[in-house]
Write a structure and sequence with these properties.
Elements: E1 2-3, E2 11-20, E3 26-34, E4 42-49, H1 58-70, E5 74-79, H2 96-110, E6 115-124, H3 126-135, E7 142-148, E8 161-162, E9 165-166, H4 171-182, H5 188-191, H6 195-205, H7 210-215, H8 221-224, E10 239-244, H9 252-259, E11 264-269, H10 287-298, E12 312-317, E13 331-336, E14 345-351, E15 356-357, E16 365-369, H11 395-399, E17 402-405, E18 413-417, E19 420-427, E20 433-441, E21 447-456, E22 475-480, E23 484-488, E24 493-499, E25 514-529, E26 553-556, E27 559-567, E28 572-585, E29 591-603, E30 606-622, E31 625-637, E32 641-652, E33 655-667
Parallel strand pairs: 4-5, 4-6, 6-7, 7-10, 10-11, 11-12
Antiparallel strand pairs: 1-2, 2-3, 3-5, 8-9, 12-13, 14-15, 14-25, 16-25, 17-24, 18-23, 18-25, 19-22, 19-25, 20-21, 20-24, 26-28, 27-28, 28-29, 29-30, 30-31, 31-32, 32-33
């Protein structure tokens, strides 16, 4: 397929190419080649993910990869083993097999006649993760990585756990999403007669990932695998690490800038989980042009000076009011020439009896019983900028928390980095957690979430070797909040909110917890950025650019909804997210439909009532070929164990070809 464009070079699309692996498995790849690459080889860019190049990411791929190819790069989009048209089974995330396959794919790409032998990896989320992980294996042809919305620490900053707390808001929803998509078939037009056998094998052999994730509740070898923070020195190639403050993955960027031994560069915008040329909230930037500058330097050897630029560009967010679906977040770009930065003030604010002051406060004991419904206005851990997935006004959450508030500010100041709450506390149960939020309170009373952190208090000393708490004993807990850039205006106040509950982000402790906080030795530590005159002269990013989106016939539009329902008689509160439901026909003839719903329920006063239910549907077809996969996944707990149920049904036309219902239980390990 030839793509017409106004790029410097014409682009040819090769719909499917097989990459052979040493064990006989074949990976399916789509390739975009600049005209003449066979005669004059070009560097290559690999994106290596499980998200089905032939349907799920078809439209997205068609806007980015041709752009890079049109500027002189061979772009190779590969589905992981067990995904899309690739052979094999995808047993879990980031296993050794995945990384071995990735290294083999790079060697194959580098050996092609259209490639100079220089390869870069590019990807968001899963593709951002494995770009770093493959780089740590140092395949000779891999010269650089651009990683977006990814992490260096799979236990600390991913959809499974946060601060040793189980992330109820994302763990099962993400596992259930992969469960339904892993059950979808390859395209017969590409795989031919073997498609049905491959499909049935996937349905029978691909496990629900939630079972492995729940089995490893500590930061053990399972999570250390693929966490490049275990040995930053293993990554020697240049790395450009990118994310957004509204996303769940921004913490890794400053850690990577500090830890990587070679050339690295960071970019953090206001965005949720998405590519910066189209992500919300804006402003969007010319992200693809920014990538080209990086590729040109490290894959073509052009001396364009990008490595001499500041190590970090960050969007300094203004103290605007809360908005659950902002089109654009007010603020401005700032830079830091090095990381960790120099010249910062570590400002300590003491916690008093409801106060947050520069001067020390008397030692007061404050006892607080957590409400199980605190956290319903938290938004999603990994938002996509869709309707209602950002945290709204926090006043309802603040009212369910222990709060400490500063006087109105008489001068503005800016944060950039990781705030930290140092809490002197005691609890009345052997297992407990603490959720800490920092909010910006406007003169009209609106409370905007700035940043937050979670800590399972049994993990206060170690995520590898947690220990139960001794009820009544005094402890010091340091709760690191997520990295942030935020400007507090004159007249605004800082509010620190503390709670032993945060549903559905943090799975509740087995029993209701009363938290005692001692103000005399508790404080909030803030990384205050000094004024930088050079911020005023920053060159702006270019405007967003890329290939024109290829038209897709929309049979039914997608939708999104968020609802909170309260049963006053029973005390049951239900939070529901609905998304998808769209049906569309792609230019390759594939007809695709997907929909999902996540339901979080809890009864006030009863932490063991917490439950998550996820429903998924994916239908893929073309002409007379029709398939459908339906899943229901559930997660709940009692005082001693976690329990899951996963049911998957698959249909070819109207015939049911697979129906499996499996349950799983695992002991709670101080979670």
């Amino acid at each position: 397929m030839r793509i017409r464009s106004d790029f410097p070079r014409q682009v040819r699309e090769i719909e499917n190419v097989w990459i052979p692996l040493a064990d006989g498995t074949r990976l399916a790849a789509k390739i975009w080649l600049p005209e003449g690459a066979e005669e004059e080889p070009v560097p290559a860019i690999l994106e290596y993910i499980p998200y089905r190049k032939n349907d799920w990411t078809w439209r997205r791929d068609s806007t980015m990869h041709p752009y890079f190819a049109g500027h002189g790069y061979a772009c190779v989009r590969v589905d992981l083993r067990g995904a899309g048209e690739s052979g094999g089974i995808l047993l879990d995330e980031y296993l050794d097999q995945e990384l071995d396959d990735g290294a083999e794919a790079i060697a194959w790409i580098a050996a092609q006649p259209w490639c100079t032998g220089a390869v870069g990896m590019f990807g968001i989320s899963w593709g951002g993760f494995n770009g770093l992980q493959v780089a740590a294996r140092r395949p000779p042809a891999l010269k650089t990585v651009i990683t977006l919305c990814s992490t260096d620490d799979r236990y600390a900053d991913d959809v499974h756990y946060m601060g040793g707390c189980l992330l109820g808001v994302d763990m099962l929803p993400w596992a259930s999403l992969m469960f339904v998509w892993n059950g979808t078939p390859p395209d017969p037009a590409i795989v031919s007669d073997g498609w049905r056998e491959t499909w049935l094998r996937r349905l029978q052999e691909t496990p629900p990932y939630i079972e492995a994730w729940l089995t490893h509740q500590r930061r053990d070898a399972y999570w250390q695998q693929g966490s490049v923070c275990e040995d930053f020195s293993a990554i020697e190639c240049p790395v450009y690490t990118i994310g957004g403050w509204a996303d769940g993955y921004s913490n890794a960027i400053p850690r990577l800038l500090e830890g990587l031994p070679g050339t690295s560069k960071g970019l953090i915008g206001p965005w949720a989980h998405g590519f910066p040329h189209e992500a919300l909230p804006g402003p969007q930037i010319g992200f693809l042009q920014e990538c080209l500058r990086w590729w040109d330097r490290w894959l073509k050897g052009e001396e364009n000076g990008i490595e001499q630029e500041p190590v970090l560009h960050a969007w300094m967010q203004d103290g605007a009011g809360p908005d659950a679906q902002p089109d654009e977040r007010p603020g401005r770009w700032v830079t830091e020439p090095s990381w960790p930065p120099e010249g910062y003030e570590l400002r300590r604010l003491a916690l008093g009896d409801g106060t947050l002051e520069r001067s020390p406060s008397p030692d007061v004991r404050l006892d607080f019983l957590g409400a199980q419904t605190c956290g319903l206005d938290a938004g999603l851990w990994c938002p996509y900028g869709d309707a209602l997935d950002q945290p709204p006004d926090q006043r309802a959450e603040d009212g369910l928390s222990l709060t400490f508030e500063s006087p109105p500010l008489d001068e503005p100041f800016e944060l950039l980095g990781f705030p930290e709450a140092v809490l002197a506390l005691a609890v009345d149960r052997p297992q407990a957690l603490v959720a800490v939020r920092l909010c910006d309170v406007a003169p009209n009373g609106q409370s905007t979430l700035v940043t937050r952190g979670l800590l399972n208090l049994t993990h206060r000393e170690s995520h590898e070797e947690p220990e139960p708490l001794e009820p009544g004993r005094h402890y010091e807990a340091r709760v690191r909040l997520n990295a942030i850039a935020h400007s507090f205006p004159v007249g605004h106040r800082l509010r620190l909110a503390v709670s032993p509950t945060y549903w559905p982000w943090a799975w509740p402790s087995p029993e209701p917890v009363t938290l005692a906080l001692f103000t005399g030795s508790s404080c909030l530590e803030l990384p205050v950025r000094p004024p930088r005159p050079e911020d005023q002269g920053l060159a702006p990013f270019q405007s967003p650019e890329g290939s024109a989106p290829i038209a897709v016939d929309q049979i039914r539009a997608e939708s999104a909804a968020r609802r909170i329902e309260r049963d006053v008689a029973t005390g049951t509160v239900t939070l529901t997210y609905e998304h998808g439901g769209g049906r569309r026909i792609l230019p390759n003839g594939i007809e695709l439909e997907d929909a999902g719903r996540e339901i979080f329920t809890i009864v006030e006063g009863d932490p063991l009532s917490a439950k998550v239910r996820c429903e998924g549907l994916v239908a893929v077809g073309r002409g007379d070929w029709r398939t459908r996969v339906e899943t229901v996944s559930e997660l709940w707990s009692d005082a001693t164990s976690f329990h899951t149920r996963n049911r998957i049904k698959a249909f070819e036309g109207d015939e049911k070809v697979h129906d499996e219902d499996r349950t799983f239980s695992v002991p709670r390990d101080l979670v």
